[in-house]
Please model this.
Amino acid sequence: MAHDDDAATHQDEDAVHYEGPSGGWGSLKGIARIFGKEVDGPEAFDLLRRQNKPGGFMCVSCAWTKPAHPHIAEFCENGAKATLWEQTSRRATPEFFAEHTVTELKGWSDHDLEQTGRLTHPMRYDRASDTYVPVSWGEAFQAIGAELRALDPESAVFYASGRASLETSYCYALFARLYGHNNLPDSSNMCHETTSVGLKKVTGSPVGTCTLEDIDKCDAMFFFGQNTGSNSPRFLHPLQRAVKRGAKIITFNPVREKGLIEFANPQSPVEMVTSKSTQISSLYCQVRPGGDIAVIMGLCKYVLEREEKQWAETGTHLLDVDFIEQHTAHFEEFKAKVDATSWEQIEEESGISRSDLAVAADVYCEADKVIGIYGMGVTQQVHGSQTIGMLVNLLLMRGNIGREGAGISPVRGHSNVQGQRTVGISEKPDLVPYDRLKALFDFDPPPKQGVNTVEACEGILDGSIRAFIGLGGNFVRAIPEREKMEAAWSDMRLTVQIATRLNRSHLINGEVAYLLPCCGRSEEQQAVTMEDSLSMIHGSVGNKEPASEHLLPELAIVAGIAKATLPPNPNVKWDEWVADYAKVRDLIEATYPDKFKDFNQRLFTPGGFYKGNKARERIWETESGKAEFTAPDTLSAMGVPDEPGRFRLITMRSNDQFNTTIYGYSDRLRGIDGTRDVLLMSPEEIEAAGLQEGQTVSLVSDAGDGVHRQVDGLAVTPFDLPRGTLGAYYPEMNPLIPLWYHDKLSKTPAAKGVPVRIVAQAE
Ligand SMILES: Nc1nc2c(c(=O)[nH]1)N[C@H]1C(S)=C(S)[C@@H](COP(=O)(O)OP(=O)(O)OC[C@H]3O[C@@H](n4cnc5c(=O)[nH]c(N)nc54)[C@H](O)[C@@H]3O)O[C@H]1N2
Ligand SMILES: Nc1nc2c(c(=O)[nH]1)N[C@H]1C(S)=C(S)[C@@H](COP(=O)(O)OP(=O)(O)OC[C@H]3O[C@@H](n4cnc5c(=O)[nH]c(N)nc54)[C@H](O)[C@@H]3O)O[C@H]1N2
Ligand SMILES: [Mo]
Model:
C-alpha cells in the first residue's frame, strides 16, 4: 500500500555485520564504500582534509560543533559520506529526465532517486509529456515571479531545510517579508521546535546553554534520546575524553545504541590497532518510549528525598537553595507534584526500576557540574515540551544552568538549522527585529504570524496554501500523514524546489512546477557561514568546481526569484549581495548587532565565535524573569493511552542515511543489513503476538481517530526493545503518523511514540 520502496533487499559485497564498537574500523569501511560508489578521483579527499578546520570547509552533515583545535581528520564516517555524496560523479541530466516520466520515477525508492546523482539544469515540469524539460534560468525566474505576483502572498509557503548558509537564509527570510508573509516553516519545526518553544518558555533561551569547554569540564552528563554514534559522531570524541577523565555518562534510551555504549576512536592508531574501546555510559536504561517525564520525575523525587535526609542529618543542603531562591520561580508547585507522584507510577510509566533510578540520581547528587543532553527521543513526543521542562527542573535543583561545566544541550540536526532561525527564518514575527528590518529596507514587514510545518500541511490540505518553495530538503517525505499530503500536494498552483539531488518531493508537483539545481556548500566560490549546535559561528570555504556549469549558488537563486517577484526597492540590492556575500554579512550584523558584532572580521575565528546566550549568564528572558520550574500534567509523553495490542512505534534513523537521503542499506551499528523493510520487536513480544522471525507483517495506525493508515511488507526482526515498543525506519513509516499527532506546545510531529497495531499478512 503506502510502502513504495522496492521490496528487494540490497546487499553490498563489503558491508559488514557489525559487532565492534562505534567508530573503529567499521566507520572507515563505511567511508570507503561510499567513496568507491560515488566519486571518481581522490580529489574529493582534499575537501575531507580541510573539513571542519578553522578556515576550511564546514561539514554539510550534522550541526555538531567544530573545535578550535581539530583532529588531523576532523570528520566522521557520516560527515565524509555527506561530503562525498555531494561530490558524486553521477549526474541527473536533461537526457535522464527525457527518458523517465515523473510517474515512472515515483515508483523508485528514495535511495535510487538520489543515486541518479547531481541535478545539472534548471527544469520545468511539462504536464503534457509528464517529464521535466530544461529551461533557462531567466525563463524560470520570470515564470515563478509572475506566479507569485498573481497570488495572495499569504497563500505561499517558503520552506527551508537547514543546510543553506546564514547569508542565503537571511536573504530568503527577507524575501518572504518583502513579498508579504511570515510563512517560513523549516525542518526545525519537525525536529527541535520543541526546544525553541519549550526550552525558551522555562529558561528564556531557545537554544542550548553549553559550550565545548563546559562539556570538557562537567562531572556528569545525562543523555535522553540522542543517538550520538550515528547522528553526531564527532561528539564521541569529547564524550570519550570526558569518560577518560572520570566524568559519568548516564543514558536513557529504549534502544541500546552502540555509540553510547562503547567507542573506538578511528583517529587513534593505538585504539585501532589494539581494538581498545572506551566504555561510554556508566548506566544505560532502556526507558519506554515517552517514559522520560517519569524517569526524570523519579530522579527528582530521589534528589528531594536525599535533600530532606541531608538537611535532617547535617543541617546542610544538597539543593542549591540560594540559586533556587534568587533565580527560579514555581519551585513549590514542582515539589508538590513530585511529592504527589508515587514510585509505582514512576516505575510503570518509565519501565525503569526504582533502584536503577536511585543509582542515576546518586550520580546527579554527587556531581558538581551536570549537563543534560537530548535529541529526537525527547522532542518528537506529544508531551516533549514537558519532558524538556522536567530536564530543566532536574538541572535547576542544583543550580546546573548558567555556570561553568553545567547546562542544557539539545543536539541539533542539520548543519545550519540553528543558524537559519537566528537570522530570521521563523514563522513568528516577534522573534525578528522588525524595527531594524524596517529601518534598513524601508518597508512594513507583515505583522501576521506565519505557518509552521504542521500548519503549512493543514493549509495545503484545506486549499488555503497555493504555492510552496523549498530551499533544500524533502518536505513531502519528511512530514507526517504522507498519503493525504501527497494527494493534496498537486492541487497547489506552484511548486518550486531548490535542490542538489533528486528526491521524492520533486515528483509531487503543483500545476506549475520547477526544479532548480544549486551548488552545494563545497561549490560555493565565496566564503559562507553557519552556526553549530553550540552556537558557534563559522566561515566555510568550498571552492570546488560546481557539478555542472548550469548550477547557481543558492543565494543567486533566491535573489533571482525575488527580483522577478518584487517591485524595485533602492535599499534592496540583490545583485550586489549575490556578487559579494560580505555585504549580506554586514546586513546580518546591522540586524542582529549583539550576536554578530564585527561579523566579517571574526568569520574565521578558530572554533568559531560565540553568538552568546542570556540563560548562560543567568539572565532569564521568561515570563516571570526567572528560570521556571514546571509541574507536568502527565507522566507519559505519549499522546494516547495504552491499550491491548497497541504498540509505541519509534521511527528510527540508520547509520547509513541522512534524513531522507538513504546512502545504503547497512545499519552497521545495530547489526541490521541489506534491507530497511524491517519491524524491530523484542523476542518475547514476537512470541506473545504469535509471530515468527522473518514473517512479513503490516503496521496500521492506532491513534483512535478512525483514519486508516497502513504500511506493508515489514519483516519481523528480533531486537532488544522494552515492552510495548516497536522500531522501524524513518521516512518509510511516515504514512502512519497523523498530522495532528504532535508536541502540544510547538507542533513538532511526534515521530517517536506513534501508536500502531501489527497486522499479520496471509502467507
Ligand atoms: N548520520 C546521520 N546523522 C544525522 C541525521 C541522519 O539522519 N543521519 N539527521 C540529522 C538531524 S536533522 C537530526 S535532527 C539529528 C537527529 O539525531 P537524534 O536526536 O539522535 O535523532 P534520532 O536518531 O531520530 O533519535 C534519537 C534517539 O532517540 C531514541 N528514542 C526514541 N524514543 C525515545 C524516548 O521516548 N525516550 C528516549 N529517551 N529516547 C528515545 C532512539 O532510540 C534514538 O536513539 O541528527 C542529525 N544527524
Ligand atoms: N518519522 C519521522 N519523520 C521525521 C523525522 C523522524 O525522526 N521521524 N525527523 C524529522 C527531522 S529531525 C528533520 S530535520 C526532517 C528532515 O527534513 P528535510 O530537511 O526536508 O529533509 P532532508 O532529507 O534532510 O533533505 C534532503 C534533500 O536536501 C537536498 N539538499 C542536500 N544538500 C543541499 C544543499 O546544499 N542545498 C539544497 N538546496 N538542497 C540540498 C537534496 O536534494 C536532498 O534530497 O525530517 C523530519 N521527519
Ligand atoms: Mo532534524
